[in-house]
UniProtKB/TrEMBL annotation:
Pfam families per UniProt: Glutaredoxin (PF00462)
Gene3D superfamilies per record: Glutaredoxin
InterPro entries, alphabetized: GlrX_NrdH, Glutaredoxin, Thioredoxin-like_sf
Record domain Glutaredoxin: where: 5-60
SUPFAM superfamilies to which the protein is assigned, alphabetical: Thioredoxin-like
GO biological process, one term: cell redox homeostasis
Known role: Electron transport system for the ribonucleotide reductase system NrdEF.
Protein name: Glutaredoxin-like protein NrdH
Length: 81
């Protein structure tokens, strides 16, 4: 499984999402990319073009969402195992 986590600095929901991904074991040993949109204008523009207006954004092979979504993170755990 591969996924990307788009975050920004000082973002409570971004930090909560990353902690939840780590707690579920979805960061280590997975093809995972963290992109800081406050440092990457092209990535920010790409997310806007996809219709995302809120950080964090998680994009997997089969799903994508924005905001802190523990339900979506929990659904990823069996796929990564």
């Amino acid at each position: 499984m591969t996924f990307a986590l788009y975050t920004k600095a000082n973002c409570v929901q971004c930090d909560a999402t990353k902690r939840a991904l780590e707690k579920k074991g979805l960061v280590e040993g997975v093809d995972y990319q963290a992109v800081h949109v406050d440092q990457d204008a092209a990535a920010l523009e790409q997310l806007k073009e996809l219709g995302f207006l809120q950080a964090p954004v998680v994009i997997t092979e089969t799903d994508s969402w924005s905001g802190f979504r523990p339900d979506k993170i929990a659904a990823l755990a069996p796929i990564a195992a």
